[in-house]
Design brief:
The complex is a heterodimer of chains A (201) and B (142). By secondary structure, chain A is an all-alpha fold. Chain A has 8 helices and no strands. Chain A has helices at 2-17, 19-26, 30-33, 39-64, 67-72, 76-98, 110-143, 148-187. In chain A, α4 packs across α6, α4 packs across α8 (148-187) and α7 packs antiparallel against α8. Chain A is globular and about 60 Å long. Chain B has a single domain (2-141), classed as Four Helix Bundle (Hemerythrin (Met), subunit A) (Up-down Bundle), CATH 1.20.120. Chain B has helices at 2-32, 39-67, 75-102, 112-141. In chain B, α1 (2-32) runs antiparallel to α2 (39-67), α1 (2-32) runs antiparallel to α4 (112-141) and α3 runs antiparallel to α4 (112-141). The two termini of chain B are 27 Å apart. The chains are: A mainly alpha (201), B mainly alpha (142). At the A-B interface, α4, α5, α6 and α8 of A face α1, α2, α3 and α4 of B. Chain A: Residues 1-12, 20-34 have a biased composition (Basic and acidic residues).
Chain lengths: 201, 142
């Protein structure tokens, strides 16, 4: 018994030192079987989703006449920081959505992409609200501690709204991403042995 | 301080557009040269493209906040609407183009039909970006 415990501890330590090798040899853990997403695809799809979402919001705000008021209240530095934070969140979410298979036809079912896109979008919405709440909490602690209760209330309500809006944006982004991926497959149908280096001018 | 920050934001916006437009022309040219593998140039541009596009959108919104855009029914507002629609078109076109470049793979050369289609896409990107620059100039200087 004591020997066994000692051997288990040694094996655990070895796993901690070289976890990847162990997982690859073991093959029994789910994490080892999930294929990581292609970074190029993640970068393209994530920034496409973010740009499309931003443009839809900008156009809607501009056409409704609400854009000027909304932008005036938001300073340049906080605005850029919020955009950068949202960009990072979308990259993390798309990386998760595209893990275990890319966006190309045949890599996985569209239903799986839409479900993951919905969950990923909801995560981005909650993450965005959570970031805002963290900043708001820090400001409240320093300047007005009595506002912490209000910040907590806003966090709960904002997270629910953020999750719903994010889920809708996520599934819409997934649909658009699949559409542009199918269009790209028509541009470059397949890579195969019949490719030649010949060109046209 | 606010003036220097706004200048910095405008500089980033202009530099971002220079990367987008200049890279599109360079990629189109790389596809015209027949005896060279264009994939490294194309992939590098696509990486840069989305980074520069994100920066351009963020700084573009910053510019709008500083200028305080008038309503959509004014002449300035109508041009802004048109510019945003052209930018949206470039974004969709570029997503198709980037994912197509990503499909080229690591082995084998680029088939002539794919090369021709990509060249058209890069040319369209370049012309559309040129139109955006022209619209931006009208917005900035009337």
């Amino acid at each position: 018994m004591g020997d066994r415990v000692g051997r288990d501890e040694t094996e655990s330590a070895a796993r901690a030192v070289d976890g990847s090798t162990d997982r690859a040899e073991d093959g029994s853990t789910d994490r080892a079987e999930v294929e990581p997403a292609d970074p190029f695809e993640v970068w393209t799809v994530a920034t496409f989703d973010l740009a499309a979402f931003s443009l839809v919001v900008l156009l809607a705000g501009h056409l409704s006449g609400a854009l000027a008021g909304a932008l005036t209240g938001l300073g340049t530095v906080p605005g850029l920081a919020a955009f950068g934070y949202l960009w990072a969140l979308v990259i993390v979410a798309v990386r998760w959505v595209l893990s275990g298979g890319g966006i190309a036809d045949g890599d996985r079912s569209i239903g799986s992409l839409l479900i993951r896109g919905t969950i990923g979008g909801a995560g981005v919405g909650v993450g965005l609200v959570g970031g805002g709440v963290l900043v708001g909490s820090a400001v409240a602690v320093v300047r007005a501690p009595e506002l912490l209760t209000t910040v907590a209330f806003v966090a709960v309500i904002g997270s629910v709204i953020g999750a719903v809006v994010g889920a809708v944006a996520g599934v819409a982004s997934a649909v658009c991403s699949v559409a542009v991926a199918r269009a790209s497959e028509r541009i470059v149908p397949e890579t195969g042995p019949d490719y030649s280096s010949s060109s046209s001018s | 301080m606010a003036g220097a920050l706004h200048l910095l934001v405008r500089l980033a916006h202009v530099l971002g557009m220079a990367v987008l437009l200049g890279g599109a022309v360079a990629a189109w040219q790389a596809l015209r040269i027949g005896n060279r593998d264009p994939r490294p140039v194309l992939r590098r541009y696509e990486w840069l493209f989305w980074g520069a596009l994100g920066v351009s959108i963020a700084t573009g919104v910053g510019n709008l906040g500083t200028l305080g855009p008038p309503g959509p029914t004014t002449r300035w507002g109508s041009i802004l609407t048109f510019k945003l629609l052209v930018v949206a078109g470039v974004v969709v076109l570029s997503a198709v183009r980037s994912l197509a470049v990503g499909r080229l793979g690591d082995s084998g050369a680029v088939r002539s039909i794919a090369r021709g289609r990509l060249r058209v896409l890069y040319a369209a990107t370049g012309w559309a970006l040129g139109a955006i620059v022209a619209l931006a100039e009208v917005l900035a200087h009337g």
